[in-house]
């Protein structure tokens, strides 16, 4: 498996100790105990087999090469992040341009880690592996906040040595829209109601499985941006949508609505996505396939300068859609 060293020079000098949460103990570095880090040299060389020193094991923090987390996770968010291993929270440290964590040696030799930030509490439930939330209402102008809030996962593997290589439990669809329009919303849905794309679920990293227990077969991305919308770039504009990974036997359907209340629907031949996978699909927003998206009654205001696009244009459907957007806005 290909991984690359994630060098984060000057990201932060010192991490403050984070307060303990959810009954978990926190381990913070003692002043003056850090070893000098020189890549490929010295006591702690990146990529070497793990070594136990004074009952602690040092791991370097990286993102899976080519994965969604590598692309979307804001490295600056590590400044208020922490690593959970077992039932303990460890503060991240930085030195020599690398981010690392010192964790207590385990009797089993297993190190299953979760990378969280302060915002992650809104997306995990009874544990970091259960009650996980992938929201079915997302917002294009703050997708970075969601990317920094969703937890990332890593498991120690002998082949990666003293590197913990993290990735999302969610998958990401990157819809690259080309053409000329102001985009109001995108919606991804499964053809089958039995396949879920969002909701609450669980994640088993060792198996690479994500299961949705209570969810929906669609995800909507609001791009109204307080009435400014998203103007397409001629070279393609990327819209990132987090979805539950899994199998979709009947494929996916993309619906795009623009500021002129026009719509385009397109079937996507995507039948499976893996955790942390980013799938880029290029779509031409062509006027010859545009049809009327809304009637006069099918846009309901839910905030200053914004409107609520809905795929179900019945009165009940519109009401549900607008409530969904309002509730998601409150959560974020």
How would you describe this structure to a colleague?
The chain contains 3 helices and 27 strands. With 332 residues, it is mostly beta strands. The strands form 6 sheets. Strands 1, 2, 3, 4, 5, 6, 7, 8, 11 and 12 form a 10-stranded mixed beta sheet that branches. Strands 10, 14, 17, 18, 21, 22 and 25 form a 7-stranded mixed beta sheet that branches. A 3-stranded antiparallel beta sheet has the order 9-15-16, with no helix packed on it. A hairpin with a 4-residue loop joins strand 15 and strand 16. The longest helix has 17 residues. It is elongated. 39% of the residues are buried.
Secondary structure: elements and pairs:
Elements: E1 25-27, E2 52-53, E3 56-63, H1 68-72, E4 81-85, E5 88-91, E6 93-95, E7 98-104, E8 112-117, E9 130-134, E10 137-139, H2 143-149, E11 152-155, E12 163-168, E13 171-179, E14 182-190, E15 198-204, E16 209-216, E17 218-222, E18 230-231, E19 237-243, E20 246-247, E21 252-258, E22 262-268, E23 272-273, E24 278-285, E25 291-292, E26 300-303, E27 306-308, H3 315-331
Parallel strand pairs: 1-5, 3-12, 10-17, 13-24
Antiparallel strand pairs: 2-3, 3-7, 4-5, 4-8, 6-7, 8-11, 9-15, 11-12, 13-19, 14-17, 14-18, 14-21, 15-16, 20-23, 21-22, 22-25, 26-27
């Amino acid at each position: 498996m290909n991984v690359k060293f994630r060098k984060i020079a000057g990201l932060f000098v010192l991490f403050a100790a984070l307060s303990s949460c959810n009954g978990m103990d926190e381990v913070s570095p003692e002043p003056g105990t850090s070893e000098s880090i020189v890549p490929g040299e010295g006591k702690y060389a990146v990529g070497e087999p793990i070594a136990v020193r004074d009952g602690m094991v040092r791991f370097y923090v990286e993102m899976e090469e080519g994965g969604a987390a590598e692309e979307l996770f804001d490295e600056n968010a590590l400044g208020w992040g922490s690593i959970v291993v077992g039932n303990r929270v460890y503060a991240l440290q930085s030195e020599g341009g690398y981010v690392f964590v010192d964790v207590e040696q385990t009797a089993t030799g297993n190190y299953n880690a979760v990378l969280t930030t302060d915002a992650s509490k809104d997306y995990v439930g009874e544990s970091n592996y259960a009650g996980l939330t992938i929201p079915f209402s997302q917002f294009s102008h703050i997708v970075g906040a969601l990317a920094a809030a969703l937890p990332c996962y890593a498991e120690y593997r002998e082949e990666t040595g003293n590197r913990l290589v993290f990735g999302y439990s969610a998958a990401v669809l990157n819809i690259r829209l080309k053409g000329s329009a102001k985009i109001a919303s995108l919606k991804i849905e499964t053809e089958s109601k039995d396949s879920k794309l969002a909701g609450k679920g669980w994640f088993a990293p060792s198996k690479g499985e994500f299961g949705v227990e209570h969810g929906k077969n669609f995800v909507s991305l609001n791009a109204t941006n307080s009435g400014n919308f998203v103007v397409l770039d001629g070279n393609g504009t990327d819209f990132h949508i987090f979805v539950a990974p899994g199998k979709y036997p009947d494929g996916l359907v993309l619906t795009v609505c623009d500021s002129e209340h026009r719509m385009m629907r397109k079937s996507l031949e995507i039948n499976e996505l893996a955790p942390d996978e980013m799938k880029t699909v290029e779509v031409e927003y062509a006027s010859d396939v545009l049809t009327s998206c809304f009637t006069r009654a099918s846009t309901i205001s839910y905030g200053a300068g914004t409107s609520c696009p809905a795929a179900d244009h019945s009165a009940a459907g519109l009401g549900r859609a607008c409530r969904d957007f309002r509730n998601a806005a409150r959560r974020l």
